[in-house]
Design brief:
Elements: H1 5-20, H2 32-57, H3 63-76, E1 85-86, E2 95-96, H4 104-150, H5 153-163, H6 167-173, H7 181-194, H8 200-217, H9 222-238, H10 243-264, H11 279-297, H12 303-324, H13 338-343, H14 359-382, H15 385-407, H16 412-436, H17 440-454, H18 458-474, H19 488-494, E3 502-504, H20 510-516, E4 520-521, H21 530-541, H22 544-554, E5 558-562, H23 566-574, H24 579-584, E6 592-594, E7 603-608
Parallel strand pairs: 3-4, 3-5
Antiparallel strand pairs: 1-2, 5-7, 6-7
């Protein structure tokens, strides 16, 4: 019996796939790609239509998207491939960004190819639309193909539709969203698809390469790397013949990280950074990959011993990591300057836990994730043999990603891409009930369940609309800034009329100033310029005399702000007698001379008098 067990893990896959949608090799007449392409075209059209006003105004979803385009412009203009400094942040030395060149590649290629035809501006606009939609297409293809393999073309179509109905995914895959998060979602989708590969070694290797790319793009995906590794360890723990999944994963992960590191970072900068893959991280993964291979090659051992030797391997990797970079044993933000932590970090809501979010937006997403988890448990309960193990692993992935989301809400996008398939399966069943059920009550129940499943925010939006009417009649609560009329993109372009210099501005408007002008700024919301960020916050929250000293030390030629954005109002609330409060109220110290530009009253600029 023991000799037959290794075969059972692989052989049961085919028979159990037949239970779901049939072995894909017997379903070559089906055309899932057509349905996936149709959904992609529909979602792309909807995304473009919704985002068209923002596209025409040049309004990015997030300041990081604007700064990403600045980085790509500099690369095309001749900045070195391995030089990831932004020299117009914290001049004259500039700030080294923690971003990877991997994300710059598709943007730079499209702009370079299209510029001779559309011009620089037209090529940039095209790239800002095409790259996110290509990212969307990659996610849909991977999720749709996996859903088809597990079920059928109908479930594949619904799973793809669910991608467009999960708010965290829609935000990260919309036009002009060109920062790194979309490509990390692709990496998770690719690893998920690879988990159902027919070859253990190849499937593990594909998942490892996908996670290597995602981890290089941003180290925030590290918990997902561990989560996929845990699933593959469970396969090994359950059946030694499945050990090659984890071997392929760890070997490809370590090799992929090393190759991508040297292709994108080179050898000139081998410093240890906590917020990006560095030599210490490479050492950890190389040691654990070697250890995994050695354990796989060793004779079979009892399960407690297997757990023990893996624990020793992990301890060896962590020991190397701790010795090479002891400060990185804590999170990259643990040692932030207190002022930067209190006025910047805690206000980056996407990086905060679930309970600190706007619950009217976060609760519907959490509801969808919990429904997906419940649907996965149903699939697990209804299945047997290999497929039962598969859905058990899937439930583990969703549960783990939900926990990640609760702790860091940005991770909800990873949970959502995993949740799309069980949601698609459940939606298919509900629509079948609508089609074949004769009883009115059953149809009404199916409609209600479908709305709650696919559009759970609908009741919340209705409630918000009614509540907004009451708020308008009572007046907007003091201190809450809901929108801005400062027309930041258009106003920033007016700064080009001024002689080039360094602008002392709040952190969030810095990227747009860099994008639309040749001016420099003191800091943006990027923590490697921590001391520059501290000076910006300290100056705006200090009395004018102290602020003058800080601004003078930084050599700023101008001061600028949007008076109705949240950040300067946060500074004003912190110190009603501080610089930000005075500038927002229309007062300015004598050492600041107002500059008249063709901008809304809320966008204000002053020249620093010497």
């Amino acid at each position: 019996m023991a000799a037959a067990k290794p075969r059972s893990f692989q052989a049961c896959r085919v028979t159990q796939m037949d239970m779901a949608g049939g072995d894909r090799r017997d379903r070559q007449h089906e055309r899932p790609n057509r349905r996936i392409m149709l959904v992609w075209a529909a979602l792309s059209a909807i995304f473009i239509a919704i985002g068209l006003p923002r596209l025409l105004q040049g309004q990015f979803p997030d300041p990081d998207d604007a700064l990403r385009l600045v980085q790509v412009r500099d690369l095309i203009a001749g900045q070195g491939w391995f030089d990831i400094h932004q020299y117009r942040i914290d001049p004259p030395t500039g700030t080294q960004m923690h971003w990877s060149r991997l994300v710059d590649i598709p943007l730079a290629l499209l702009i370079f190819v299209l510029s001779p035809v559309l011009g620089q501006s037209g090529a940039e606009t095209a790239a800002l639309v095409m790259v996110p939609l290509l990212t969307l297409g990659a996610v849909l293809f991977l999720i749709g193909r996996l859903a088809w393999r597990l079920f059928d073309t109908q479930v594949a179509g619904f799973a793809c539709l669910c991608i467009g109905l999960l708010a965290p995914l829609v935000f990260q895959l919309q036009p002009m969203r060109v920062d790194h998060h979309g490509w990390q979602i692709v990496a998770v989708a690719a690893a998920l698809w690879a988990m159902a590969h027919r070859s253990a070694l190849q499937g593990g290797a594909i998942a490892g390469l996908a996670m290597a790319a995602g981890l290089t793009i941003s180290i925030e995906i590290l918990p997902m790397v561990a989560l996929f590794g845990a699933v593959l360890f469970i396969r090994w723990f359950r059946d030694r013949a499945a050990r090659w999944w984890l071997v392929g994963y760890m070997q490809a992960l370590a090799l992929g990280l090393s190759v991508i590191f040297f292709l994108t970072r080179g050898t000139a900068d081998l410093a240890q950074y906590c917020d990006a893959v560095s030599p210490a991280h490479l050492g950890f993964f190389i040691i654990t990959a070697i250890g995994t291979g050695a354990i796989a090659a060793a004779p079979a051992m009892p399960r407690p011993a297997l757990v023990a030797v893996f624990g020793l391997t992990g301890a060896a990797g962590l020991s190397f990591f701790g010795l090479a970079s002891p400060k990185c044993l804590i999170t990259p933000f643990a040692s932030l300057d207190p002022l930067v932590h209190d006025y910047w970090y805690v206000h980056i809501l996407e990086g905060r836990p679930f309970w600190e979010q706007d619950l009217s937006e976060a609760v519907p997403t959490l509801l969808q994730l919990l429904v997906a988890f419940s649907a996965t448990l149903i699939l697990w309960q209804k299945s047997h043999d290999w497929l039962r193990s598969w859905w058990g692993e899937y439930a583990f992935l969703i549960a783990g990603s939900i926990v990640m989301s609760l702790l860091v809400w940005r991770s909800a996008a990873f949970a959502c891409v995993i949740a799309a398939i069980p949601l698609g399966w459940l939606a298919t069943r509900l629509f079948r009930i609508l089609r074949i059920e004769d009883r009115l009550l059953a149809k009404v129940g199916a409609v209600a369940a479908t709305i709650l499943l696919l559009l759970p925010a609908t009741p919340v939006r209705v409630w918000d609309a009614v509540s907004a009417l009451d708020e308008d009649s009572a007046g907007t609560p003091a201190g809450i800034v809901r929108s801005s009329d400062c027309q930041l993109q258009q106003s920033a372009r007016q700064l080009k009329r001024l002689e080039n210099g360094t602008i002392f501005a709040p952190l969030d408007i810095g990227p747009v100033i860099l994008l639309d002008t040749d001016h420099a700024v003191i800091a943006t919301s990027h923590h490697r310029a921590e001391m520059a960020m501290r000076d910006v916050i300290l100056a705006f929250t200090s009395d004018p005399v102290t602020a003058q000293r800080i601004i003078g030390k930084r050599g700023a030629a101008y001061v600028a702000l949007c008076s109705d954005l949240a950040e300067p109002n946060l500074y004003a609330q912190a110190n009603p007698g501080g610089l930000a409060a005075q500038l927002i109220s229309g007062e300015n110290p004598e050492w600041l001379e107002p500059v008249e530009l063709d901008t809304p009253d809320s966008f204000r600029v002053w020249r620093v008098r010497n």
